[in-house]
Amino acid sequence: MGRYLLGRLAALVPVLLGLSVIVFLIMALIPGDPALALLGPYATPEAVARINRDLGLDRSLPVQYLTWLSHVLTGDLGRSHSLNRPVLDEVAERFAATLILAGAALALAALLGLALGVAAALRQSGWVDRLATLGVLVGLSVPSFWLGLLLILLVSVRWRLLPVSGMHAIYGEETLADLLRHLALPAATLAVVAAGVIARLTRAAMLEVLRQDFVRTARAKGLGEGRIVLLHAARAALVTVIPVIGTQAGFVLGGAVYVETVFQWPGIGRMLVGAIATRDVLLVQGGVLVVATTYVLVNLAADLLQRLADPRIGG
Amino acid sequence: MSPACPALVGLVLAALAAAAGVAGRARAAEVPDDVLVVGQSAEPASLDPGVTTATNDARILVNLYDGLVRTKPGSLEIEPALAESWSLSEDGRRYTFRLRAGVRFHDGSPLDARAVTFTFGRLLEPAHPAAATGPFPLAFLFRAVERVEALDPRTVRFTLRQPFAPFLANLATPTGLIVPPGAVMARGKDFGRNPVGTGPFRFEAWQSSRKVTLARNPGYWGGPAASRLVIFRPLADPNTRATEMLAGDVDVVAEMPPDALALFRHRAGFSVAEAVGPHLWYLILNMRAGPLRDRRVREAVNWAIDRRALAEHVLQGTAVPARGIIAPAFAGTYDPDLAGYGHDPARARALLREAGAEGARLTLLVAEGGSGMLDPVAMGTAIQADLARVGLDVRLVTYEWNAYLARVNRGLGEDADMADMAEMAWMTNDPDQLPSLALASDALPGKGGFNAGGYANPDLDRLLDEARRSTDPARRRDLDRAAERLVVADAPFAVVVHGKQAAVVREAVRGFALDPTFTARLAGVRKREGP
User: Fold this and answer.
1) What's the pLDDT band for B18 if we cut at 50, 70, 90?
2) HSE (side-chain half, CA atoms, 13 Å) at A87
3) pLDDT tens for residues A223-272?
4) Rounded CA gap, B354 and B219, in Å?
5) Is B303:B344 a contact under the CB 8 Å cutoff?
6) B271-284 pLDDT, tens per residue?
7) Can you give the pLDDT at residue B383?
8) pTM
9) Any CB–CB contact under 8 A between A179 and chain B?
């Protein structure tokens, strides 16, 4: 297991390097000028030239890339020109907010998806199954920004149950309860699609497992149905479902951009959208690097979990 | 029935119940009446008045800092602020300001002549010790300044290279706000995130992408502010601005999109504050190449555009049709007798026939969004339809705002990839600014200006120069009006509309008014009836 892990970690290096090159090139090649974004419509050519010199944008692309990379390796992501603060500070704050949102959404999606999937499998073609199938279909088809707005209009504006947007109360102390209130709607919005996917796969996996010999054996031994389902069948089904939850983690991170925008969640997705609009090259590079690294690590974690859960894969 | 199924359903129900329990206390933390919450369309870029150009930031700045002078509430007229009085020398080159006594910055340091010389030295001298806290994109507003001297701690003198009539108006812009030398030197580039001014509110906290909090400055020279705290929230999504307002979680929202504005106009519990600002939305016409070199074609474009329909239908009343380049907000200069171009498609067709330009193909550069651009895609499309009606075949080319500026500011061009027309909008603080930066012949793109259409007219240059040097307001007004008439007749632009700024305000808010500068001073604003 240790050697496997080291191997997988080593394989990340070229992936991340390749990714940094791509991000760097995209930012360099899209039209628009960072100096102009910074100075606004009244930029004089001299001022533009000075900014580009200050930001090192007058040098060749490989030099720019290597300078950036050498700084990154020492932990220095540079200074955001549009926010006037170190990239690392901004990215750290924003990424923490995104992790809270995506983590909550993923937990909610896993809980709902597994519960619905198991329930639907046990009552195949019953009302739970039909309702779950319908729910999954709706969850997969409704765009998250639309669902988010709908939730805001109903829950926040009409019923006044939860705050409209943001991560903390505008005024007063920032408590955990306050955070949870702000988290409920965006996390639910973000969880819907992933919950649908997880439910659908859990149902299929459970149906598959319930037909297998060891379940029949367990039943023959006279074990209670509850123990059979939860201890034997569900565990076996998890082996199939865990990697799906892993990939859903990636989708949840991606979907966070829309949800962060609708709910004004101060996450990294929204930060990146703003950074691209202002041509804040260092901020985009720092943000993408962190998001991509996480994405890769989450996939790695899902693989490892699968190995732990499945006795057939050597551990 | 297997026992697993109810267990699972129970689990889900428990989760939902927990969520509902949290939800039940949702409205526990109400914002008190002495805290004002303002929703804005963006996070500030910087709260250093020399550095930022964004209107969003200016709304915060005018409450944190003071300038030597400022505009009177609701107008663009100048009144004293940190300077209690001033005098102008005979030759129109030396302004001597007498500073208000006993004013202190929020960090306790004195507002004196040295702070003033520091503020402008930083903007203007590349070798100034604080020059590295820039760049200062709008420093050109003060390029007429030759030197700034402290005559004594309460007297400061500006010597200009030549008489420059817009000088006082420029001092009243956010770029002219006074900063304390000590705090700027100590914080360096971080001053923009730790601002210190003399204004009615002092800076308390800036939480990235969440809020900027200002607290009442108890020692303010103009008397303490009505509210204890002001919180500025960045709400980038227009729908979120509207829903936050509906839910009552913000007290004031600037920059509401036209659709949402219509909703609040007729809704109990809200009011809409409007101000026509010094704003102009226009098309730059290519004077150097293509069919628009012919004045008759430019006139035809102007006659073809249905400005009233644009203002009332496309922009839903958030703009007024423009006749010339001087906005009505410049009350002293605006010429009520200027005829301008009405909507006359028949006349446009006749002019095109006369010029032999029927069916001409034109490209129009369109921005996707951008500061002051209102609804640029919808407006571009409507103009395309107006021009099609008189027989002009217009192709739209759309760019994202930053790419758009990069394309347009380098000039519409003369080559194969040239453009015939481009949308643009300006918000200015003086009637001189737009023509001298976007139409004068020394403002061509190659010379560092914004004259992207390549207009060059020595008569206009002479009028603008004379107006700028004029120290007699009446004479200056006549010259500015003459310059405007010349521009309208020559039609290097197709002027379209002046945008109105609108803010939605909760009923509980008292004393809120927008300024024509598109900012709002909040010192006198409070919620509900106070003592």
Assistant:
1) low
2) 23
3) 877 778 877 888 888 888 888 888 888 888 888 888 998 899 999 988 98
4) 69
5) yes
6) 999 888 899 999 99
7) 98
8) 0.86
9) no
Which percentage of chain B shows pLDDT scores above 70?
94
**Residues forming a β-bridge with B239:** none
Residue B30 DSSP code: P
CA–CA distance, B73 with B79 (Å, rounded to integer): 9
Across the interface, do A94 and B35 touch by the CB < 8 Å criterion?
Answer: no
Place of tokens 């028949």: B346
Minimal Cβ distance to B2: which of A47, A168, A229: A229
Instruction: Name residues whose C-beta falls within 8 Å of residue B108's C-beta, 6 or more positions apart in sequence.
Output: none
Picking from B30, B208, B236, the nearest residue to A261 by CB comes out as B236
Which residues, numbered 23 to 62 in chain A, qualify as contacts with chain B under a Cβ-Cβ cut-off of 8 Å?
30-33, 36-47, 50-51
* Whole-number Å distance between alpha carbons of B318 and B111: 40
Q: How would DSSP label each residue in B337-381?
A: T-------HHHHHHHHHHHT-TT-EEEEEEESS-TT--SHHHHHH
| Per-residue pLDDT reduced to its tens digit, A47-73 | 778 778 877 888 888 888 888 888 888
Q: How confident is the model at residue B86 (pLDDT cuts 50, 70, 90)?
A: very high
Residue B4 to chain A, least CA–CA distance (Å): 5
Give me the half-sphere count of Cα atoms (radius 13 Å) on the Cβ side of residue A73: 9
Beta strand B421-427 with B361-367 is parallel
For chains A and B, count residue pairs whose Cβ atoms are closer than 8 Å: 193
For chain A, what's the residue count? 315
How far apart are the C-alpha atoms of B300 and B349, rounded to whole Å? 7
Q: Which two tokens stand for residue B416?
A: 């194969």
From A84, A109, A256, A119, select the one nearest A196 (Cα to Cα): A109
CA distance A12 to A7: 9
Give A43→chain B minimum CA distance, Å: 6
Q: Which of A164, A225, A264 sits opposite B4 (nearest CB)?
A: A225
pLDDT digit string, tens, across residues B352-397: 999 999 999 999 999 988 878 999 999 999 999 999 999 999 999 9
pLDDT digits (tens, 9 = 90+) for A280-304: 888 988 898 888 888 888 888 878 8
Q: How many CB atoms lie within 10 A of CB A213?
A: 8
Place of tokens 């949800």: A259
Which of A181, A235, A259 should we substitute to test contact with B (largest number of B Cβ atoms within 10 Å)?
A181
Residue with tokens 């003592």: B531
Using the Cβ of A172 and the Cβ atoms of chain B, whether some distance falls under 8 Å is answered with yes
Confidence of residue B12 (pLDDT cuts 50, 70, 90): very low
Measured between beta carbons, the chain A residues lying within 8 angstroms of B403 are 30-32
β-pair type (B155-160, B145-152)? antiparallel
Contact list, B437 vs chain A (CB under 8 Å) = 42
Within 8 A of B240 by CB-CB distance, chain A residues are: 152, 164-165, 262-264
The residue among A193, A186, A190 whose CA lies nearest residue A266 is A186
Token pair of B41 as six digits: 């369309």
Element (H, E) at A294: helix A281-309
What is the reported pLDDT for B4? 42
Closest CA to A127 of A114, A116, A137: A116
CA–CA dist B77, B226 (Å, integer): 25
The H-or-E segment that residue A145 falls in is helix A144-151
Which of the four pLDDT bands, split at 50, 70 and 90, describes residue A1? low
Check: CB of residue B361 under 8 Å from CB of residue B345: no
Distance separating alpha carbons of residues A148 and A156, to the nearest angstrom: 11
CB contact under 8 A, B403 and A156: no
Q: Is the peptide bond before B291 cis (omega within 30 degrees of 0)?
A: no
Q: Among all residues of chain B, which has the CA nearest to that of A117? A: B8
